[in-house]
Design a protein that fits this description.
This protein is of the alpha/beta class. Helices cover 32% and strands 21% of the residues. Bound molecules: NADP nicotinamide-adenine-dinucleotide phosphate. NADP nicotinamide-adenine-dinucleotide phosphate (NAP) is lined by residues 120, 161-167, 169, 206-208, 212, 214, 219, 285, 334-337, 382-385.
Length: 470
């Protein structure tokens, strides 16, 4: 096939056929960004291994942040376009492979997110009671792959390593009262487990100082206003070191200034009176998770840090050697997510993302791989908020359109939509369409209305398929 390929590709008589793998925000912003090219006729089939779309909006965004989930209204709008189809309950690598998809699509986009957590690399991480925040988040959000997990919430003290927004979400879920959680769409089993929990002391451990905290001002402000928990920050840890002060005087980001201001205010608070206590520590790093002879977590050893200027101008944590032990029965590591390699797609193991250039998948050496693209966390790593994926997808789509015009795409042989449909059905008879998802959604919302909650989630794929009489 010549480089120019199929001359009228992207026209009504010969639509560009695109497969999107992963139905989180990044995947949906691929769809909406294509709408910005009205002269281009494109048909998009979106695949997800779950019967439910929306990725981390459903399985990651905290249950008490329902407003953040309203972005799905825009995704619904994209899904209503006649050129869009959803194939839920279809897993890439299991039901369909890269070689399969190349027969049906001219371009394939991977927007599979970052599904696992980064580890700490300290001794004792494998002890019972040491968990990744990503597992806990997926569990309380009712993700079917995590619903079977058990979190032993019998100990009074818990440590969360990291002070990013995920750590804040986890801390908030541990601090919320039962009445508050009962008003959310948290999985029923998690609401019950948290009601019966003995957790009273929660420690959030930041390795750098208040001016480098990864949480955003609204997140720390929300912690400071919790009904059921006092937030405690020691004044000596809230105080800025000379280097951080210098950075701030040189003109800091307004979020940094706001964080520092809120942290200072919290550190000046008086006596605690609420049932739970959330202690935020700065300038400490875990050096070991301690356990008993049965391998159960009994504590976390931390070392105090100081900040040092790196060659690139940023401040990093350096151990002072001064150690301390905090007795806890559970540790959550919340130090960032990592992507998972997809079969046949060049993957940067070091960074946990797909090798790419502006969203064009490349080999390790940087050569573009024809017809393959990526978007979202699997492209750039786990950073930013939901909206960040909009501009990220815009960049990917621009590359896709540019490549189409230059004749760089896959020369698919079976480009009638019904051919792809029949192929998927042959591999996964229980594939779920967007209409099917709408029926599952309606049932969850109905159960929610009965229970005075935003929704009651199905946490087992079988139960979702039962709604569809499958
Ligand atoms: P994150 O924002 O990257 O925060 C990771 C935290 O872990 C930082 O405090 C980091 O400290 C710390 N850390 C990293 N390695 C460590 C180590 N070895 N020892 C101790 N601490 C370590 O990641 P995240 O919280 O998982 O969030 C992921 C993304 O989702 C972020 O972009 C976040 O904003 C977003 N998100 C947003 C919301 C929201 O908008 N409400 C909610 C949840 C998540 P350093 O700063 O020193 O590296």
């Amino acid at each position: 096939m010549s480089e120019a390929g199929n001359e009228n590709l992207g026209t009504p008589s010969n639509p560009l056929r695109v497969a999107v793998i992963g139905s989180g925000p990044a995947g949906f912003y691929i769809v909406s960004n294509f709408m910005k090219y009205p002269d281009l006729t494109v048909e998009i089939d979106m695949f997800d291994r779950l019967p439910t779309p929306f990725g981390l909006v459903r399985g990651g965004v905290a249950p008490d942040h329902q407003k953040d989930k309203s972005v799905t209204r825009a995704y619904d709008k994209s899904a209503k376009q006649p050129n869009y189809r959803f194939f839920g309950n279809v897993e890439f690598g299991k039901h369909v492979t890269l070689d399969d998809l190349k027969h049906y699509y001219h371009q394939i986009v991977f927007s599979t997110g970052a599904q696992v957590d980064r580890t700490l690399g300290v001794r004792g991480e494998e002890f019972t009671g040491s968990h990744s925040a990503t597992d806990f988040v997926a569990w309380y959000n009712g993700h079917p792959d995590f619903a079977h997990l058990k979190f032993e919430l019998s100990s009074e003290s818990v440590a969360i390593v990291g002070i990013g927004n995920v750590a804040v979400d986890v801390a908030r879920m541990l601090c919320r009262t039962h009445d508050e959680l009962r008003q959310t769409d948290m999985a029923d089993y998690a609401i019950e487990a948290l009601r019966d929990s003995n957790v009273k002391n929660i420690y959030m451990l930041g390795r750098r100082g208040p001016a480098q905290a990864a949480f955003t001002p609204p997140e720390i402000k929300e912690l400071a206003e919790l009904v059921g928990a006092d937030v405690v920050i020691a004044q000596e840890e809230a105080r800025l070191d000379a280097e951080s002060r210098r950075d701030i005087e040189a003109g800091a980001d307004k979020n940094v200034l706001k964080n520092v201001e809120i942290i200072e205010e919290i550190s000046g608070r008086g006596q605690c009176s609420k049932d739970k206590r959330l202690t935020i520590r700065f300038l400490v790093s875990p050096t070991e998770i301690l356990g008993d002879e049965n391998g159960n977590v009994t504590g976390i050893r931390i070392v105090k840090n100081e900040l040092v200027r790196k060659d690139d101008g940023t401040l990093s944590a350096r151990s002072t050697g001064e150690e301390e032990t905090i007795p806890v029965g559970m540790v959550f590591r919340s130090v960032g997510y990592r992507g998972v390699a997809l079969p046949g797609i060049p993957f940067n193991e070091r960074w946990g993302n797909i090798f790419n250039d502006k969203g064009r998948v490349t080999t390790e050496e940087g050569d573009p791989v024809r017809g393959l693209y990526c978007a979202g966390w699997i492209k750039r790593g786990p950073s930013g908020v939901i909206g960040t994926n909009k501009t990220d997808a815009q960049e990917t789509v621009a590359c896709m359109v540019e490549d189409l015009k230059a004749g760089r795409y896959l020369h698919a042989a079976h480009t009638r939509p019904d051919e792809a449909m029949a192929f998927v059905a042959s591999r996964q008879p229980a594939a779920v369409s967007y209409d099917d998802w709408t029926a599952i959604d309606a049932e969850e919302l109905r159960m929610g209305t009965e229970d005075n909650r935003p929704r009651v989630k199905f946490t087992r794929v079988e139960d979702m398929l039962d709604v569809l009489d499958r």
